[in-house]
Amino acid sequence: MDRRMLVAGNWKMYTTSGEGVVLVSDLADLVREVWDEVEVAVCPPFTGLRAVSTLIELDKLSIKLGAQDMHWESEGAFTGAIAPRMLTELRCDYVIIGHSERREFFGETNETVSRKVRAAYDAGLTPIMCCGETLATREALETEAFVRTQVMEGAAGLSAAEAAALVVAYEPIWAIGTGRTPTPEAANDVCRTIRATIGAMYGPPAAMAVRVLYGGSVKAENARMFFGEPDIDGGLVGGAALKAGSFADIVKAAC
Predict the structure, then answer these.
(1) How would you label 62-96 residue by residue, b for 16+ Cβ within 10 Å and e otherwise?
(2) Which residues pair with 96 in a beta bridge?
(3) Residue-by-residue DSSP string for 68-97
(4) What pLDDT is recorded for position 178?
(5) What confidence score (pLDDT) does residue 179 get?
(6) Residues of the chain with pLDDT under 50
(7) Which uninterrupted H or E stretch holds 213?
(8) Euclidean distance between CA atoms 184 and 17, whole angstroms
(9) Is residue 81 within 8 Å of 71, Cβ to Cβ?
(10) Which of 99, 108, 133, 162 is catalytic?
(11) What is the distance between the alpha carbons of residues 130 and 212, in angstroms, rounded to a whole number?
């Protein structure tokens, strides 16, 4: 199956609303020639979603919009939380779920990831479900078992069609923002495990369709090596997504 490459930028807690508009405007000028070949998405902070969404709509940009997190309930007394329907109203296409920073600093678990994945689909959003191991887990040679459990528990209870539409981002925690990366071959091995896990849960067609991204110190200098691996379908990019030029170079590496 021909899986379309996806390169998504996770802006984390950077950029004001105005800075985000400038960033997307500059990015659009740089990737316009290739956005028919590669799906491009940006995930600003919540405060920047409306401004970026408006820019995308008014300028008819072929750039998808994603959020960085959401609650699993449709509404309620959850101070500081964002409901799925609030994101769909802003024309979000994607939502990042279970990023390692959410797990480490905000108590996210495989169970809450599963609930959010379910809620995202119910709201018409496509989840970008994150998984990845610590350095200690890697050194103990337990990476594949650890990631397999994250995928099995996070993606539990889906239909085969939902599993096929899922985006899974493999982000080894020890590589995020550190400049350290696994070899492309090692990253592909884990991405293959993710694909095989989806296949065992939902069948070979879902395994062939699910898109598996690599994230963790992705930059223009190494993106083409990762994207050339057969089980890597693009990237979830952090720091390098905050500059239009470097992110555009990564997008072009996916062509």
Answers:
(1) ebbbbbbbbbbeeeeeeeeebbbbbbbebebbbbb
(2) 128
(3) S---SSSSSS-TT---HHHHHHTT--EEEE
(4) 82
(5) 81
(6) none
(7) strand 211-214
(8) 35
(9) yes
(10) 99
(11) 10
Active-site residue, selected from the candidate residues 133, 162, 171, 229? 171
Question: Please, are residues 24 and 58 in contact by the beta-carbon 8 Å criterion?
Answer: no
Stated pTM of the model: 0.96
Q: Which CATH class is domain 6-253?
A: alpha beta
Q: What DSSP designation does 230 have?
A: T
- Per the annotation, the verdict on 111 as an active-site residue is no
Instruction: Report yes or no: 49 and 80 within 8 Å, Cβ to Cβ.
Output: no
Domain definitions of the chain by residue range: 6-253
N- to C-terminal Cα separation, the chain: 17
Cα→Cα distances 121→3, 30, 84, 183, Å: 20, 31, 9, 33
Do the Cβ atoms of 95 and 46 come closer than 8 Å?
A: no
DSSP-derived letter for residue 233 is: -
User: What span, in angstroms and rounded, lies between the C-alpha atoms of 50 and 56?
Assistant: 10
Q: Report the pLDDT value the prediction gives residue 227, as an integer from 0 to 100.
A: 97
89 is catalytic: no
- Pair 194, 170: CB distance under 8 Å: yes
Nearest to 49 by CA among 35, 27, 70: 70
**Residue found under tokens 């998984």:** 131
CA separation, residue 213 to residues 115, 128, 201 (Å): 21, 9, 19
